Amino acid sequence: MGIDALKTWKFWKELFIMTIGMMIVGAAVYYFIEPTHIIMGSIAGLSIVLVDLLGFAGIEIKVSMVILILNAILLVLAYALLGKEFGLKTVYTALIMGPTVDFWAWIYPVENFFTEPGQTTVMNDLWFDLICIILLFSAAQALLFHINASTGGLDIVAKILNVYCHMDIGNAVAASGFVIVGASFLVNPVRMVVIGLIATWMNGLIVDFFTAGLNKRKRVCIISAQHETIRKYIIETLDRGCSIYEVTGGYSMQQNKEIQALLTQNEFAEVMEFMRKNSINAFVTAGNVTEIYGLWHTKSRHRHALPEDSINTGEK
């Protein structure tokens, strides 16, 4: 990532997304994980275990500091196995994770939520607190994975499993997290450990749910006598690639051409509106696609980069 990257919209957009994602994580840690001591499969959960163990030995240290130290150790692994971009982004998110926890403590101390006698958690109900933890963490993880970043820590391990073992990202998050939850047997009662295992499993499921929503694309198949008009609209207006196949109608035995393209939901709506306005008769099918391998340009494509077009759309 050179100096020129600082001048691009992509850099500042992703920096903003990473910051928001880590603010969400910081809120989850400070307001829900620390008060409840629910140990999910995360670096924050491991940090709480270590803080408790060190406390038994008479060593006082803040959770945010332990998070920072552990993340620093794992960053080398991210850079070596997952590439420069992922490594540098994770450096940023790891470095600000601890400070975001302190930020929420400064902005609005958790004690302000304790309005009832004996209340020790924000929701004053363990299961409601658990739901808040899972939703916040899962949303932040999916958001960061979507831009090839992570919250650091065990998400690095999950990403490695995703890339090298071809596991769904949610399953990878759950698998790496179960190890940490198991370690919490050292400091937590069995009931809390079981809750942590449930939370880790649900975290994996919801990460997959959020990820599928962020990655969703439409695979659109269009058969029309005016295929050339549609092709030009997709290429020139939407700036997307497409593939064209010769097809034969099973009933009429007439030759025709089918256009296939991968589009965002908004682009698919634009194609349908274009055909409606221009009175184009067509047979259209569309299905959701949540995994795309190869290159996908979220904004603009390089029209003359033919090898990229072939990768994106399956063109021969």
Please state roughly what percent of the residues sit in beta strands, choosing from under 5%, 5-15%, 15-25%, 25-35%, 35-45% or over 45%: 5-15%
Name the poorly predicted regions.
Answer: 299-316
What is the alpha-carbon Rg in Å? 24 Å
Sheet with the most strands: spatial strand order = 2-3-1-4
The string of secondary-structure elements, in order, is HHHHHHHHEHEEHEH
Structural class: alpha+beta
Biggest pleated-sheet summary:
4 strands, antiparallel
Total strand segments? 4
Q: Return the domain count.
A: 2
Q: Kindly state the mean pLDDT as a whole number? A: 80
Q: With helices defined by DSSP (H or I, 4 residues minimum), what is the helix count?
A: 11
Distance between the termini: 32 Å
Describe this structure in words.
- This protein has 316 residues and is an alpha+beta fold.
- It folds into two domains: 212 residues, no CATH class; 98 residues, 2-Layer Sandwich (Alpha-Beta Plaits).
- 60% of the residues lie in helices and 9% in strands.
- It is built from eleven helices and four strands.
- α1 packs across α4 and α3 packs antiparallel against α4.
- The radius of gyration is 24 Å and the shape is elongated.
Quick rundown:
This protein has 316 residues and is an alpha+beta fold. It has two domains: 212 residues, no CATH class; 98 residues, Alpha-Beta Plaits.
Task: Looking at this protein, list some descriptive labels.
316 residues, alpha+beta, Alpha-Beta Plaits, 2 domains, four-stranded antiparallel sheet, 11 helices
